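In the current project phase, the collection of sequences with tokenised folds has grown. A sample record is quoted in full directly below:
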Amino acid sequence: MAQVEATTERTIAAEAETVFDALADYKEVRGKVLPGHFSEYEVREGGDGEGTLVHWKLQATSKRVRDCLLEVTEPTDGQLVEKDRNSSMVTTWTVTPAGEGRSKAVVSTVWNGAGGIGGFFERTFAPKGLARIYDELLQNLAAEVEKTGK
């Protein structure tokens, strides 16, 4: 079983604190910026960063749907970690300043992949597919914080 990783980043025209606060706002913002690959979104506990428990289904491909129940932690300033209780998947969001009124948001997801030929295809194609999904999410997040300044 090899570890599979997908990473995406985007520069956003908003302060790092603004972007991080929007990303950590599971009650209001996160549900709005999720692309169509996500369904059944529900905040079960908390809703603002550390201590949040959130559920969604992620339709990675036409045949692959992950039922995710994520515990959110904030191990360091500017970082959110979502650990899936239903799998080995861990997603880390890091937001850092990137110059005057700009920030860089990086999302990285890792999980233990399958073995054999299925694992080969997973390691080959899953990172690109997940990167496209998260790129769309970051684009939606950028549009949200750039228009509202929230």
Observations:
- Helices lie at 16-24, 29-33, 116-148.
- The two ends are 42 Å apart (CA to CA).
